[in-house]
Amino acid sequence: YPENYVKLRFLENHDRARAAFLIPNHRVRHNWEAFLYFQKGMTLLYAGQEARDGHRPSLFDKDEVDWSDGLDYSDTMRELAALKRNPLLTDSRYEVRALPRDILYATHRKGDRQLVGVFSLRGRDALVPADAPDGVYPNLALERAPVKVSEGMLSCRGFPIVFEAPWTGEGPG
By the 8 A CB rule, do 137 and 147 touch? Predict the structure, then answer.
């Protein structure tokens, strides 16, 4: 592939079972969806994903999305899509690290700025080392509780965390 090509990222497509079927836990699925949007590249939503439809549609027959349970996560998807407008997601050094307790710690870094993502793939609480100066940052992900970094650590409550912070060039990465 050419340098800096745009890769297509997705959780579900016509070849796979639905995310709602594979990841029935709502909190865990939120983390995977937020990570999907945080990754470098183009995000693909498969028809019905915004309804959390667990039914795998047919490619060859008319198969409408089931909206009968009243679940519509279109607003959630739009909120996550807003992350894609952050310039750090398109022109940065991207890195993902797997941490203990099934935590993904991802960064987009350029110059003295970074976008940090913390994703709990089991939806569990964890204390996470953070490569960011101590302080309180707005959470840009689905849970809007502020992110507090203290003594190089932050508390993940099992929901996705995304925040922008200064990058000093110190620490891992």
Answer: yes
Summarised one tens digit per residue, pLDDT across range 90-131 is 888 999 999 999 999 999 999 999 999 999 999 999 999 999
Q: How many CB atoms lie under 10 A from the CB of residue 35?
A: 23
Most distant CA atoms of the chain, gap in Å? 56
Rounded Cα distance, 147 and 138, in Å: 6
pLDDT digits (tens, 9 = 90+) for 44-71: 888 778 777 777 777 787 878 777 776 7
DSSP string over 6-70: --EEES--TTS--HHHH---HHHHHHHHHHHHHSSSEEE--TTGGGT--S---SSS------TT-
